[in-house]
Amino acid sequence: MNIKEAKEEIKKSVEIYLEKNEFGEYAIPVSRQRPVFMVGAPGIGKTAIMQQIAAELDIALVSYSMTHHTRQSALGLPVIEEREFDGKHAVVSEYTMSEIIAAIYHVMQDSGKREGILFLDEINCVSETLAPAMLLFLQYKIFGNQSVPEGWVVVTAGNPPQYNKSVKEFDIATMDRLKRIDVTEDFSVWKQYAYSQGIHAGIITFLEINQDWFYSIRTTVDGTQYVTARGWEDLSVAMQLYEKKNFVIDGKLIGQYITDTEIAKKFEIYYELYRKYKSDYQVADILSGKYSDEVTNRAQKARMDERFSLIGLLLEKINEGCRKSVGREHSLQMAVRALRDIKNSLEKEKNPISMRLDMQAMKLQRQLQEKTAASSVEAREREEYLAAVQLLRNLEKNPDSEDMRKDFEKVKKLFDREVKKHQKQIEEVQSMMEAAFRFIENVWGNGQELVLFLTELTAGKDSLFFVSQWGCDSYYSHNRELLVYDQERKLTEEIRALMDL
Asked: pTM for the complete prediction?
């Protein structure tokens, strides 16, 4: 299964393991809760989906790579204790608490969350000295003399043998106690993630044209050459910062992340073309509806790979606008809830409005700190929290007076200005979408270019949310005409009509 399907399966497992019966006990006893064993190539996104699951279920996450552990750090250090057995004194060896188990208790204390996921990566690559303890843990969820706390689900991951020489095969007795999930790479699934994370459009369009180069591990005379999803994502971050600082992006940078020399070279050549298209086509003009006849003529004569790149450039600006709009919407929603709490307590409390805004900002900061401690907050959500806190701090600067109702109205007017800025940004993105549709219709008609543009808008989580929340007339219009599911519906209707004859 692909990483998206694996995520859903693991999420279901965590949910049923944390389900409780009418007596408040876990419906599936801890002893029967098989650890999940996710097997997939390196860099495929196994760790990323664990953070997503923890965030979506509002539970904590403790993550460890077992290749970094020794027997002592996993089990704890031996200590000498004196015990009495049947009236006789004896000196026995025990263990301090495992570093891994201790980390769970630290997270519970810092985040306030009593339930969570213990994610152990690369469990089939542990050292020879740790291997017996690892097998014991998988069977009984115990490190040394300490058990995993109740309410914590064990999820593990490992690499197939072809990707790691250190891989050890588990025996049947161990495998019979695990829930194994095999994960394979899938570009179409990764692409949805890429849009939501703002992966560089040059990378997305390059891989759209060359999907076989999305993930590759091969052995050559020069050794193992590989490229992974993690490599593309890390390269994207570097490229965006390089572009911001006007640094040159060349093979030296690309090769640091894409270690397959052939793929790295082809991407270097493509990126030069991509930059040229960006300059030649003046995407900002197209999205403002002010492009020239020269641009139209060039686009009509362009080869398919150049058309794909141009559509990618259009989508880059539109998706950036969608991401900003969606993020701002979430931040404003947090601020609205804070202002609503203040309004509802106007008659009950005597604290000035500025102090109440400060308290609401601190409340959001505490929530973010707890989520951070639980490792259940993603980068985008963190930015949304910080933006909401900053907004409340800015509103807090409004001076207080004797009349708290008037003070609140002043704050509300300032907030309304932020809402209007948000609405203006939404209108600008809608305008860009409509302009892109008009350009594609004018240049290529209702061909495969329009289908591609529609499909990519639908694939992006933010663009789809944007359209469903705020609308785009051209999207709805062409969606009915061109999307596959609508064609399937028409085909189904034709079949039913034939059956009624």
From this structure: 0.77
